[in-house]
Amino acid sequence: MSITIIPTSVFADVVSQxxxxxxxxxxxxxxxAQGIEIRRExxxxxxxxxxxEQCRQAIQQSNLSFTVYSVPASLWQENHLLNQKILYRxxxxxxxxxxxxxxxxxxxxDREHSSIDLLLTSLDQFFAEHSSAAPIHLWIENDQxxxxxxPIRLLQFFEQLTTLEAHSQWYSIGMTFxxxxxxxxxxxxxxxxxxxSPYVTYIHAKHAVKxxxxxxxxxxxxxxxxxxxxxxxxxxxxxxxxxxxxLSDDTQIGYYNDLLSTAEGSMYTxxxxxxxxxxxxxILSTPVDSTLLDIVTFGEAMTMFVAEEVGDLHEVxxxxxxxxxxxxxxxxxxxxxxxxxxxxSKVGADAFGTFVQQKLASEHVNLDHVRVxxxxxxxxxxxxxxxxxxxxxxxxxxxxxxxxxxxDDLDSTYFSSARHLHMTGIPLALSDRNREFAQxxxxxxxxHHRSISFDPNLRPALWSSHTEMIQTINxxxxxxxxxxxxxxxxxxxTGSAVPEKIAEFYLKQGVKAVVVKLGPSGAxxxxxxxxxxxxxxxxxxxxxxxxxxxxxxxxxxxGWLAGLPIEEAIxxxxxxxxxxxxxxxxxxxxxxxxxxxxFIETCPRYxxxxxxxxxNAENEKSTVxxxxxxxxxxxxxx
Length: 638
Known about the structure:
The protein is α/β, with parallel strands linked by helices. The chain folds into two domains: 5-280, Divalent-metal-dependent TIM barrel enzymes (TIM Barrel); 295-620, Ribokinase (UDP-N-acetylmuramoyl-L-alanine:D-glutamate ligase, 3-Layer(aba) Sandwich). Strand 14, helix 12 (351-362) and strand 15 (370-373) form a beta-alpha-beta unit. Helix 3 (52-61) packs across helix 4 and helix 17 crosses helix 18 (499-507). This is PfkB family carbohydrate kinase. InterPro entries: PfkB_Carbo_kinase (IPR050306), PfkB_dom (IPR011611), Ribokinase-like (IPR029056), Xyl_isomerase-like_sf (IPR036237), Xyl_isomerase-like_TIM-brl (IPR013022).
């Protein structure tokens, strides 16, 4: 088994600055790691008052053997000269910390213009002036830049070190190998591993996929030929290993710490003057930031019984059990795309409640904010099977556990640990308690500068009056960054059936973007700067429309969060909506990221003029020049 080290950035409460780095040393030791990595960027104090001694004492008391000090700075400046100030400052702080090694990025090293002799002389000078201090090892990390993440530059750097036979009793120089960073820098991680393996002492493992012009960091896949496993197999087996991605609890952290300690690497033996370092890896792998989750939602999930035969529900004898609920659908959809997705709710202490939790957990949705209510049941519903058109749905949800969710149940830190909130209008219809809960959640997200998306998802039957529904839904919608109404929902909520005027209604009240779903043929969008239409995808057969609207939200919001142009984000939404209607069940057709990209590239789309609306100023009516169902209960294509 390899030595493992746990960085403080693993702990969500440290990243959110609720807990000091020094306070997790004991937890690191209890989780089975041999060392801890202290991150300079996580200190909130000024440079002159870093709590290094406090961390050192806590680490010693925890009996941890090794400390790594991570400094987000470059060794070589833009002019290719050594940054001696950064080098000396980092070494000095590392000594105060009692660190075994300090980690820096290569920076703008150039073989012709950068003096490694000066680096070695500077190191010798530093330790001559600090002769009473313990040795410190310098580890150079490939970063996400085109210069610091260039394998040729790194190889030249380490080859020059080897030529100079650079070694000392006071220091050694090795490499931190970050698998994910190679992808961001446009490099081949496997090729880099083959070239740089002799110098690697510290391994960071991330999984990322390219989406248009950006990379999205995803959980580490489990298949044997996964990239991170192939890379580790090429790197020294003796290399220290660690997890870097933020996790929700210590049990998860301990699990991945054990997993990484047993991963098999190369039998290559590093030279004696090099030491081993960490493997940074992830199943919820993401760039280190101040969040535990990418996206969180809340609402009611129900057990759904779907008829196995066509006919009226009262005549059906056989049903199959599935999961239903708009917010649960969205949480599953986001998780399948590789986002860290969370769902908050209440369920009953019954078989239906257990089923809901097990189903969501199997989809890797975080359930840390799910409460079990011993006094109220989990809701359920019946859905008919149809050959064409929309299925008949009957709900049994009055007085459900989810409708009892109140501010008393709110863990505000759970929501603020997510970088985005996606909500719908359904919980607002369930009870006054739910509405109060929702308002507190929004306030919490806004206080932490998080973004919000809102899908009206109108359910008129759940409201006491249309007036109350319209006023309440709009009051919440205008607090969001992006609003996603269907064309008929927009008409109900704004009084206009013209997409441009629906969008204008919300934009005037501060919403950043409005996307109006126009049916299977596409969507209209408008922001403060631009507007347009996006074509939908043509499908051969529509099997079940329920859940397609939630899928549209998943695709659009995930693209929006990834920073894609709004047209590309909406294209994702149209694609997931089209995939959803081709499967029985609310979310069964939702794709993985790779499946989504393949569908977008291969599936035919409607012509742009089939999405355009004919504006009729008189009566403000609009029609889509394609087959379109006016049924306002259709949850998918609006």
